[in-house]
Every structure is written in C-alpha cells, then in structure tokens.
RNA sequence: GCGUCGGUGGUGGAGUGGUCUAUCACAACAGACUGUAAAUCUGUCGCCUUCGGGCUUCGUAGGUUCGAAUCCUACCCGACGCA
C-alpha cells in the first residue's frame, strides 16, 4: 500500500523543519495540516513556513483560503485527498505535517462527513436560542443524535439541527477504509522545554511584525470578529498573553493526540530525530 | 504615634451570625469531539477516604454565642489620612 507520512505534535516542536528534511531525503512533498495556515495573510501569527525554509520542497494546503471566509474540515479533506493523489501520481511520497488533530483524523481515519454545507442564515437564527431550546428541537428531529450529543454544546447542537434539517436526520458516522498506509510520527518535547520554545517563538513573532500583519488583515477587510476566531495572536496580542495561551493550546493538542495509539512518539530534538525516522519509515513498508 | 479602611483557598474577588470547604472568574489537572477545531463543551479543583463519610480552613491569639469567615478585644501586616 502507498505510504503517507504524517508528522504531528504540539506547536513549536519543530515539525515543519523536520518535514522538509524528510521530504528531501525520501523525495516527498508536504501537505500542511493546520487549520489557520490555510488562510492567505496569516503568516507570522500561525508560524507559517517561509519560502526559504521550504528549501524547494512543494507545500500544499497553505494559502488556499481567504481569511474573510470560513474554511472547513470538509474542504480540507477534499483538497488534501486530491493533493495526496496528485503527489502519488508523481511517484513521490506525501508528507502530512501539522498540529490540527481534527484535520489529521479527517484524512487518516477516512471519516465521511455529511454533505450539508453551512447554512449561515439558519445558524444565525438558532444562535439566539438557548441550549435547552435547541436540544428540544433536535430531539424532535432526530432522537438518536439527541441521545449522543452534548446538550450543553451550542455549536454542535446547531450543526446537528442544520444537518437534520437538510437530510431528515443526522447520518451515522461512516469511516471509509483509508486507501493509504499512514505512518504517524509525533514529535514530543518535555513541558519545560516546550515552554521555552514557545516563549522564543512568540517573541520572534512580535519582532517579525505580528502587529503589522494584523493591521494589514484589517485593512484588507478582515473583521475583528474574524480576527478573534483566529486566536489570541490576532486578538489584541501582547507577548505575555500569547505565550500563556499558546501553552494552553499545546496542552489541548496533546489531549487530542493522546487518544491515537498508532502515533509513534519521538524526541523532538532535531539532533537525533531524523536518523530515527528514516529507518522507521522504511521498516513500516 | 493617632485615625480610617482592609487582610478570605494558586490568583483575582464574593460572602458580614447558622443552609460555608466558603458564590463566581481565572489558572491548574483530567476528558469529550458527526463540516467553526488555537473553536465548542464536560468533570475535578483544602486534606483523608473502604466514596457512606471523616477531618481541618477565611492574618494570629483569645472572647461572646447553642452556633463565627461574619460580632468583641489584643496583637501582626498593608494602604491611605493626620501628626
């Protein structure tokens, strides 16, 4: 089976640089798995890799969306799946690299999401209702989904109603057998080191002109509401605030990754990880 | 030195006689995840526990009271005012 390498891990563990090194060694191309790097103009705050750092290795799923509009997992899924086949057709190896667990799972677990596009009008109406009211509505439309849903989670309640309205009910989760063999490698850094790296990275962001980047986004019509959605880096940031929030985020990332027992965790120290990974990739074949 | 106000759990900050281990928020820890995922949501959060409960907390020490974080006295600490 065709192999696809997946490099994942918490933020600031050096995934991008490692992915480039691997790509050069095994003739690969990189697909980003980052829910914010898909947007044009969010460069500094998302820690997007620069042209120079790519060292000529093609990168996919970066700058594919307009920050004014929402991007979704399904779009990510479609674009990534076609990127994978495109790379494979070139006799090259796809390397998925990123920290958005939900996006990675959408690819590697073959989850099929219901074909119901977001209905902003409906969402707006529903968002004025309380969780309890929404739950009642959902229960009437689809009692089985009502049983499994978190009845305090407004976002999910709204989405479930949106799907139920379009399809009659929320379909069961379907997981299609993946077409590829995914080799998942997690980069791990002990907490104290991670904190130091985050600090360094955030300070660098500010030096590189994070504040200017935000100004530019605003000038280009990206709303304040949207900026908030992009996270703390884009919402009136101060270095202290961004550092704290980033560490919190990194912990949440780990909560997600911990569930996946197929991840092979490696020391994130760049000195020794490449030598460990190449044989690992070969061995799994 | 005198006077005023204040000292509450990791932090901020409620509570001014019983229902107080003490609202709430934040942090911390654990977890969920059906097209927003750096999103959204849940649980725990003094100590011990055979999970029934037991024990100790609200600056410190006494006192009043059946009962005190809450009232009184002294002391310690902080802010401000007057000397």
Explain what you see:
By secondary structure, the protein is α/β, with parallel strands linked by helices. It is globular. It contains 13 helices and eight strands. Helix 1 crosses helix 13 (270-284). It has two domains: 3-112 and 177-284, 3-Layer(aba) Sandwich (Rossmann fold), CATH 3.40.50; 120-172. The protein binds one RNA strand of 83 nucleotides through helix 3, helix 4, strand 5, helix 8 and helix 12.
Distance from N terminus to C terminus (CA atoms, Å) equals 8 Å
E-strand count: 8
Q: Shape from CA axes?
A: globular
- The total count of helices amounts to 13
> What composes the largest sheet?
6 strands, parallel
> Which regions contain 5 or more consecutive residues with pLDDT less than 50?
none
Strand content: 5-15%
Secondary structure class reads alpha/beta
Q: What topology, given as strand order, has the largest sheet?
A: 3-2-4-1-7-8
What is the CATH C level class of the largest domain, in words? Alpha Beta
The name of the CATH superfamily of the largest domain reads P-loop containing nucleotide triphosphate hydrolases
Order of helices and strands: EHEHEHEHEHHHHEEHHHHEH
CATH architecture of the largest domain: 3-Layer(aba) Sandwich
Fraction in helix: 40-55%
What is the total number of structural domains? 2
CATH topology of the largest domain: Rossmann fold
The average pLDDT score comes to: 92
């Amino acid at each position: 089976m065709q192999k696809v390498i997946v490099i994942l891990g918490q933020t600031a563990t050096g995934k991008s640089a490692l992915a480039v090194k691997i790509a050069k060694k095994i003739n690969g191309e990189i697909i980003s798995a980052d829910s914010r790097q898909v947007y044009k103009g969010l460069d500094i705050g998302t820690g997007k890799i620069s042209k120079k750092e790519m060292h000529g290795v093609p990168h996919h799923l970066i700058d594919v969306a307009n920050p004014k509009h929402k991007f979704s997992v399904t779009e990510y899924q479609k674009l990534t799946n076609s990127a994978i086949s495109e790379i494979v057709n070139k006799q090259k190896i796809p390397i998925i690299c990123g920290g958005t667990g939900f996006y990675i799972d959408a690819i590697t677990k073959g989850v099929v999401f219901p074909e119901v596009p977001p209905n902003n009008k409906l969402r707006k109406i529903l968002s004025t209702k309380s969780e309890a009211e929404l739950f009642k509505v959902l229960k009437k439309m689809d009692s089985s989904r009502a049983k499994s849903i978190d009845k305090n989670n407004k976002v999910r309640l709204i989405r479930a109603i949106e799907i139920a309205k379009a399809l009659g009910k929320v379909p069961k989760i379907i997981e299609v057998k993946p077409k590829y063999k995914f080799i998942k490698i997690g980069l791990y850094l002990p907490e104290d080191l991670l904190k130091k790296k985050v600090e360094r990275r955030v300070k660098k962001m500010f030096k590189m002109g994070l504040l200017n980047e935000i100004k530019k986004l605003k000038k280009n019509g990206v709303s304040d509401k949207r900026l908030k959605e992009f996270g703390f880096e884009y919402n009136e940031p101060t270095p202290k605030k961004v550092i704290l929030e980033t560490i919190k985020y990194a912990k949440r990332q780990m909560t997600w990754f911990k569930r996946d027992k197929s991840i092979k965790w490696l020391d994130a120290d760049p000195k020794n990880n490449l030598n460990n990974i190449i044989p690992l990739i070969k061995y799994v074949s």
